[in-house]
Amino acid sequence: MLLKIEFESETPIYQQIKNQIIKGIATGELAIGEDLPSVRQMAADIGINFHTVNKVYTQLKQEGWVVVHRKSGVMINPDLKAELTEDYLQTLEENLETLAAEAYLRGVSKEDFHGMIDKKYSSFIGRGRK
Amino acid sequence: MLLKIEFESETPIYQQIKNQIIKGIATGELAIGEDLPSVRQMAADIGINFHTVNKVYTQLKQEGWVVVHRKSGVMINPDLKAELTEDYLQTLEENLETLAAEAYLRGVSKEDFHGMIDKKYSSFIGRGRK
DNA sequence: TATCTGTTATATATATTATATAACAGTTCT
DNA sequence: AGAACTGTTATATAATATATATAACAGATA
Questions:
Q1: Domains, in order of start, for chain B
Q2: Which of A10, A43, B116, B117 could form a disulfide with A50 if both were Cys (CB 3.0 to 4.6 A apart)?
Q3: Which stretches are annotated as coiled coil (chains A, B) (predicted)?
C-alpha cells in the first residue's frame, strides 16, 4: 500500500498513517490478513523514524485493527470486529456535528453531504458488520 | 451562550470553544450581530487564561466568523459570507472520508449516516448560503 | 550464527497548548 | 480628567505532544 504523507500538514504524521491504513481496510486496498511492512521498513520507505511507525502499530493493535506476531510482523486483523460502542457513537456524532455546522454555513447542502457520503461508501468493500 | 469545556479531552480548549461557537452560529443559538463576552470575561467564566480565549477570537476573526470593534467587543459577523473554496471542500472530503471509513467498519450503515446528517441539518437555522 | 521481527529504554529537539504578568492604545461613562 | 472597560501585544514559563536518534533485548527464522 502506498502511503502519501504531507510533512507540512497540521495533522501529525502518525495520525496520517493511521487514517490511511483504516481507509485502506475499508476500501479493501488492504486485504484482510495482509501483512504490513515492518516498522523499520515502512519508516525507511516514508523517510521517517521507526518510532513514529511503532506508535502507529501500537495504537492500531490496541484498537484491534491489526494483530502482531513475532517475525511474521503486523497484519490486518483477520478477526476484525470493530464494535459500535456508545462511546464511539458519541464521538462520531460530535465530530460530525462540528463538520456539518461549518459545511452548512459555507453553503454545503444536506443533499451535497449525502452525495459525499454515498461516494465514500460506494468505495468501501463489503466487509462491514451489519 | 453556555460553553461546556471538557478539560480531560484530547481536543485543545481553544479548539473546543471554536467548535462550539461555529455550531452556535449554525443553530442560531448565537444570533447574527450578537456580542460575545470579552476575552477576560469568557476566560473568567470558564476558568481559563484570557490568552486562550484571545487565540480563539483572533482565529475566528481571521476566518471571518466574527468582527471586532474597540469597546463594543466581538460580535458574530453580520455580513457572514463563509466561502465554499476548493481548499475547504478538499479538507472536508478528507475529514469525512476518515470519519466514514471507521464508521463503516464499525457497522454504521450509509442510511445511519444519512440520518445523523439530517438530524444535524434540521437543527441548523435558515441562514446558510445557497 | 546471522538476520530479521516487535519492543523497550533513554535522550534530545521542536512545536503546541496553556498559563502568568505586564503594559499599551483605544472607547465609553462618570 | 479619570476610571473602567475593550482588544492587542510582549515576555516568560511550564507541560505536553510530536518526532528523531541510538542502543539494546527477546523471539523467530534461515
A1: 13-76 (1.10.10.10), 86-122 (no CATH)
A2: A43
A3: none
Contact A47, A84 (CB under 8 A): no
Task: Assess contact for A63 and A21: CB atoms under 8 A.
Answer: no
Q: Which residue has the cell 466568523?
A: B65
What digits encode the pLDDT tens for the residues B49-96? 999 999 999 999 999 999 998 777 899 998 888 889 999 999 999 999
User: What's the CA A54/C1' D20 distance, rounded, in angstroms?
Assistant: 13
> Which amino acid type is present at position B28?
G
Per DSSP, helices labelled H in chain B are 13-27, 39-46, 50-62, 86-105, 110-122
Percent of chain A having pLDDT more than 70?
97
Q: Is the CB of A13 under 7 A from strand D?
A: yes
CB contact under 8 A, A117 and B118: no
Separation between Cα atoms, residue B79 and residue B94, nearest integer Å: 28
Q: What whole-number distance in Å separates Cα of residue A3 and Cα of residue A37?
A: 11
Radius of gyration of chain A (CA): 17
- Rounded, the Å distance between the CA of B20 and C1' of C13 is 34
B93 with A116: Cβ contact below 8 A: yes
Inspect the interface and report whether the beta carbons of B129 and A106 lie closer than 8 Å: yes
